[in-house]
Specification:
With about 350 residues, this protein is an alpha/beta fold. The protein has twelve helices and eleven strands. A six-stranded parallel beta sheet has the order 2-1-3-4-5-6, sandwiched between helices. It has a five-stranded parallel beta sheet with strand order 8-7-9-10-11.
């Protein structure tokens, strides 16, 4: 797409958020996003190391990101002009093999040792854990990890790592309808916490198991809030936002791995609620405590934000792929350490 067309697309999406009298926007800073995004399109370069053999990922978001990156204009064959370096390896790579990959990069290329991997990134859908192995430890602590939300506790380092938005192809629906249910939970049918059992018996909440797509999308449009148990069935959160259902993420600890945390002001588009001690009745009180004005604002901002959570086979301006690349762009400045020799 021509640069002018890209700029025009951005202005259409962000323009209302840039004026002094603008209504609230879902962005941390719309003006900064607009400026940085265009700079990213013009200058960002990534060098991709050649994997030992071709592979792909089984998870849709990881596969789409990986293949879109390889086809993108961000990739350069000249490592001297690269801002970041991508280390590709399969999701089922063993710890020993991963250590060998990093060791080969260290020995065969000059780039890893300049910052001990801090200007490198890798894609691991489930994330990687800490290890006593020196190579994996440097990869874990220094390099940017990209994983799929939600990430296992301990496998994600805030402010450094990035989470991919769950797979969604649902475009924002501007025709918001009147709601019938206070809360809707699409349950995966696995072991049921006490809260789920209570919600099933509560008249203000609707719990459905393994719903067909058209059914749960209709239910989302009919509900004020869509409930998500963190590390439960959260994959359709972006779809719920696009359909005008305000997400309520029920958690037992702070969430630090939400997608696009460098872009979106999640507190304005979703509720993060601690597991309520009072069960379903307490949850009802919390949700009813949201004023109608605040609810309508969150609903509108959620629909606007959802456009950045859409995955496309062919990436489009400001979609999920480009927003993940944008977060990498924000991490391109690293401290380059003096080269060290290890025994």
């Amino acid at each position: 797409m021509a640069a002018t067309a890209v700029i025009f697309s951005i202005l259409l999406l962000l323009g209302p958020s840039l004026s002094a009298s603008a209504s609230p926007s879902p962005y941390l800073s719309a003006a900064t996003l607009l400026q940085n995004y265009q700079n990213m399109l013009s200058t960002f370069k990534i060098f991709v190391y050649t994997p030992s053999k071709p592979f792909d990922f089984t998870d849709a978001p990881a596969s789409l990101f990986y293949n879109s990156l390889l086809r993108s204009p961000f990739v350069t064959q000249n490592p001297s002009e690269a801002h970041l370096f991508f280390v590709p390896f399969s999701h089922d790579t063993s710890t020993r093999s991963l250590s060998r990959i990093i060791k080969e990069l260290r020995n065969n290329f000059p780039y890893w040792n300049r910052a001990l991997g801090a200007d490198h990134f890798f894609l691991s859908p489930a994330g990687i854990d800490y290890s006593s192995d020196r190579n994996i430890l440097e990869l874990k602590k220094n390099s940017v990890q990209i994983s799929i939300f939600p990430v296992t506790s301990g496998y994600f380092i805030p402010h450094k790592d990035i989470s991919l938005p769950p797979f969604s192809t649902v475009l924002p629906d501007e025709n918001l309808t009147k709601t019938s249910f206070l809360g809707y939970l699409k349950w995966d049918g696995k072991t049921e916490p006490n809260l789920v059992n209570e919600l099933k018996k509560h008249g203000d909440f609707l719990v459905e198991e393994k719903s067909k797509q058209l059914n749960y999308m209709r239910r989302a449009k009919e509900s004020k809030f869509c409930l998500f148990l963190y590390h439960g069935e959260v994959a359709w959160m972006a779809e719920a936002m696009a359909l005008g259902c305000v997400p309520v993420v029920i958690v037992d600890r702070p969430i630090q791995d939400l997608p696009l945390m460098d872009v979106l002001r999640w507190s304005d588009v979703a509720l993060l609620v601690a597991v309520p001690r009072g069960g379903a009745e307490r949850l009802k009180q919390v949700l009813n405590g949201v004023s109608e004005e605040k609810y309508l604002e969150m609903r509108e901002l959620g629909v606007a934000a959802s456009r950045h959570l859409v995955w496309n086979e062919e990436p489009q301006p400001l979609d999920a792929f480009h927003m993940v690349i944008y977060q990498l762009w924000l991490r391109r400045h690293v401290v380059r350490y003096a080269r060290r020799e290890f025994v």
